[in-house]
Design brief:
Length: about 140
């Protein structure tokens, strides 16, 4: 039986730090529908939980909600970036103001998407684009 190179490649770990189950289901759908088994989703509902997962396991990309209950906005992003400076981060938020968009990008966010405007295929494209910007060998402390 022949084994393809894709079957041998490890799954990319996508860490979603998001408190909404609906958003988690949207991300899960995008990865399953368009990822062809190449991605594994880890979900943290609190920033502290997400930071622990970054410390413990190999994470390839973080999808970060800026509206978490325990920390929000640029503070959440700063915590992730301080812990893992080279880890690609896609910010996913419900905030639609132009100021938030510019502030996120000026702060070094690798990619930025608004929850309500993202479909499964567009979200998957954003994840792939974010991964292509920085390619660490699975970030692990």
């Amino acid at each position: 039986m022949a084994v393809t190179a894709t079957a041998l490649a490890p799954q990319k770990c996508v860490l979603l730090i998001e408190d909404s189950e609906d958003v988690m289901l949207m991300v899960q759908f995008a990865l399953q529908e368009y990822g062809h088994g190449k991605y594994r989703l880890e979900w943290a509902t609190h920033l502290s939980e997400g930071l622990d997962q970054i410390r413990k396991c190999g994470v390839d990309v973080v999808i970060l909600d800026l509206g978490l209950s325990e920390s929000s906005g640029r503070v959440s992003y700063a915590w992730v970036r301080a812990l893992a400076p080279k880890l690609p981060v896609l910010v996913l938020t419900g905030e639609t103001s132009e100021y938030t968009d510019l502030a996120a990008l000026a702060g070094g966010v690798d990619s930025y998407s608004v929850n309500d405007l993202v479909s499964g295929s567009r979200l998957f494209d954003a994840i792939q684009a974010t991964l292509s910007r920085k390619r660490p060998n699975r970030y692990k402390l």
